[in-house]
Amino acid sequence: MYELFPYFTNDGSVxxxxxxxxxxxxxxxxxxxxxxxxxxxxxxxxEFLKTHNEIKILDICFGIGYNSKSFLNYFFENxxxxxxxxxxxxxxxxxxxxxxxxxxxxVDTDKNLMFLSPFIKSENKNIFNNKINFSHEKISKLxxxxxxxxYKLKKFINMIFLKKIIKNHPEIFDDSEFNLILKSKKYRxxxxxxxxxxxxxxxxxxxxxxxxxxxxxxxxxIYYRYISTSYKKAAKYLKLVDFIFEGEIGDARKIILDDxxxxxxxxxxxxxxxxxxxxxxxxxxxxxxxxxxxxxxxLTYSNSAAVxxxxxxxxxxxxxxxxxxxxxxxxxxxxxxxxLIKFGLSEYDLGLxxxxxxxxxxxxxxxxxxxxxxxxxxxxxxxxxxxSSSKFIKTFRGSN
Length: 400
Ligand SMILES: C[S@@+](CC[C@H](N)C(=O)[O-])C[C@H]1O[C@@H](n2cnc3c(N)ncnc32)[C@H](O)[C@@H]1O
Hints:
The protein has about 400 residues and is an alpha/beta fold. The chain has two domains: about 5-250, no CATH class; about 270-400, no CATH class. It has 17 helices and ten strands. The protein has helices at about 30-40, 45-50, 65-85, 110-115, 135-140, 155-170, 175-185, 185-190, 195-205, 210-220, 225-240, 250-255, 280-290, 305-315, 345-355, 370-385, 390-400; strands at about 5-10, 15-20, 25, 55-60, 100-110, 240-250, 265-270, 290-300, 315-325, 330-335. A seven-stranded mixed β-sheet has the order 6-5-4-7-8-10-9. Strands 1-2-3 form a three-stranded antiparallel β-sheet, with no helix packed on it. A hairpin with a 4-residue loop joins strand 2 (about 15-20) and strand 3 (about 25). Helix 1 crosses helix 3 (about 65-85) and helix 14 (about 305-315) crosses helix 15 (about 345-355). The N and C termini lie far apart (about 55 Å). S-adenosylmethionine binds near residues 67, 110, 251, 270 and 276. The site of S-adenosylmethionine has 21 residues, from helix 3 and strand 5.
């Protein structure tokens, strides 16, 4: 039976744990904060949007959608500034001329997570957060006593995603496994009740895809006026933005092979290389290289030497993500142009890449399963004449 292991992370957004992989989907620090700080803020989107009206994003490992949702939220947060530069407001612009075009392709193997993404609560303020519904000592230890939101998702972001997911996957209404998840009391506290009501409304009345602004009139008199207010807001924004969302369920390796798009930003949020090496191989990165715009960038949370080396071997300039909030380097950025890399790899990072820790994962035909990739990698590490990372670290520290 399909089961989820949700809990509230320290910023009040919902995080998931996977017992099968013994890995977390989201940092206990905050699922939403992590999306903002590792993917959205380092992408320098404001700069990009000053000179581009169109943006294409590939969200690899969409899960419950924090990265795409945070992007859209950030975009709308900054949209008002764009309007004031045009000397107008959202209420007065009154035109159907689209000011921006957004295309997001989101990919995940887990259908239930993609379907569930609009339902997930992104904020639970100031709750006691020292209990989880499953046993995991490490997660329990990392949870603080009270949740403290750092970022806020606009209410209508989930509504927009619900509409897009329904449009992409009308089978959602008949999917018994998914509908059981929605009905389960176990998960109720983690789901947004308004979105659940809206979904039930669509399910009962029959969903017809209409532009949001027509739908807002349609919803006007229904009992949850609150939703209708949020809808109106979304409708106003979407009047000015052409937002296309393609949520694909399947292996990212296969989906990318059939994809003809080039992207301005690629978010890579797979489980760690030790758990899901198939999305960190030099061969997969070579494929991503073909799908990245010349001025585009790939962002990922991973600091692994093997991942950074794979980016370099796949032909990317590779650097680090600097987190202003915490004054720390976290994650990796890969681009086709050197000038897009603001924080290059240090002497230490480059040294580490030349050790056994930097040996890349391989998957020549993008078809091996994770176990086979790990076995081949372990063998290459065992027979390699490179120095070990621990020896390198000792020598490096000694000489510095
Ligand atoms: C760390 S989680 C991503 C969290 C996500 N970004 C979010 O906001 O919820 C990793 C995700 O990778 C997905 N996944 C695992 N193998 C995959 C593959 N080969 N192709 C696409 N997605 C995959 C899992 O289903 C899981 O949702």
